[in-house]
Specification:
Elements lengths: L12 H19 L11 E6 L4 H13 L3 E5 L1 H4 L7 H11 L2 E5 L3 H10 L4 E5 L5 H15 L6 E5 L4 H10 L5 E5 L8 H10 L3 E5 L2 H5 L4 E4 L11 H8 L6 H4 L7 E4 L11 H4 L6 H24 L2
Parallel strand pairs: 1-2, 1-3, 3-4, 5-6, 5-8, 6-7, 8-9
């Protein structure tokens, strides 16, 4: 494992499954209410440029369960890259805290934060990727299917940070990944090339949703307009309408295909109520697993930082 967790590309396949093994242990202890204060006395600085319910709740609750404390730093508290230089924030905050989690706009900001930090930095989301989410997603698939390898995972929607993180995952674990987007909303070409050059997975970009979802083991979607794209929302609704996860489209996949969404969902836009609430939906399992996976990531980074 690298000193920081900024991308799934920072992990090896072994790292990924070591994190999953620890995640399963921590989840079992959490449900059994067995204390597991593996980060007793640790403090986690949580820097938010983009607000979020799940990211704050899962990290703050998770570090508490591990015996530590989470410090929430709102956009107005930091003003990262505007009120104060990123490298200055990194050098100050890392002298006060044992771990840093940041949820930012520009990916270059989290890279700079990690470069100047004395402690491990975790990417809680950037415009480029969302690695904690996809680690939780893959763990959830593993729980439900007993494996992740060689499953057909179809992402339908915008070629955004979720799509990029699934592509990075495909560079480390062999899957059949289909990214289904409108033509002008494809994922980053360099990220695609990186994963395709790794030669582990079959990775396709498709524009026909009916063709894309055929024989899918997993169907995944996300909002059509991410935070910061609000002005494009109405135009995107028109463009993405054929890409809605509805009963008709899902009917072209396997009968037992798993339905996933990273949340928050705009119900009856990118996904219908009927699909989100269907027996095949594991949306709230993946939401819960954010916390368990992030706890495992924090423990692994802290142990490595301590030299254990």
């Amino acid at each position: 494992m690298t000193p920081h967790f900024l991308s799934i590309a920072d992990l090896s396949r072994q790292d990924i499954f070591d994190i999953f093994d620890l995640t399963a242990q921590l989840k079992a202890k959490t449900h059994a209410r067995v204390p597991h204060r593996m980060l007793d006395g640790y403090s986690l600085a949580m820097i938010f440029a983009k607000p979020s319910a799940r990211t704050r709740i899962s990290f703050e609750t998770g570090i508490f369960q591990l015996g530590g404390m989470g410090l929430y730093l709102a956009p107005q508290d930091i003003g990262i890259g505007t009120r104060e230089a990123v490298k200055d924030i990194a050098r100050v905050v890392s002298r006060y805290n044992d771990l840093i989690m940041a949820r930012l706009f520009a990916h270059s900001d989290i890279e700079e934060l990690a470069e100047y930090s004395k402690v491990p930095v975790i990417n809680g989301l950037t415009d480029y990727n969302h690695p904690c989410q996809i680690m939780a997603d893959a763990f959830t698939i593993l729980e439900h299917r007993g494996k992740v390898d060689n499953l057909k995972i179809v992402y339908v929607g915008d070629g955004n940070n979720i799509a990029h993180s699934w592509i990075n995952f495909a560079a480390r674990v062999p899957i059949h990944l289909v990214i289904c987007t409108p033509r002008d909303y494809q994922p980053d070409a360099a990220t695609l090339k990186f994963a395709q050059d790794a030669g582990l997975s079959t990775i396709e970009v498709e524009h026909d949703p009916i063709k894309a979802v055929k024989n899918a083991d997993v169907l995944y979607t996300d909002v059509w307009a991410s935070m910061g794209q609000e002005k494009e929302a109405e135009e995107r609704k028109k463009i993405f309408k054929p890409y809605q996860l509805n009963s008709e489209l899902v009917g072209h996949a396997k009968d037992d295909t798993l339905i996933m969404h990273c949340l928050p969902a705009h119900r009856n836009e990118e996904i219908t109520d009927a699909v989100l609430e269907s027996p095949n939906s594991i949306v709230f399992d993946e939401a819960e697993n954010r916390m368990h996976v992030q706890k495992a990531i924090m423990v692994k980074l802290a142990e490595q930082h301590r030299g254990l």
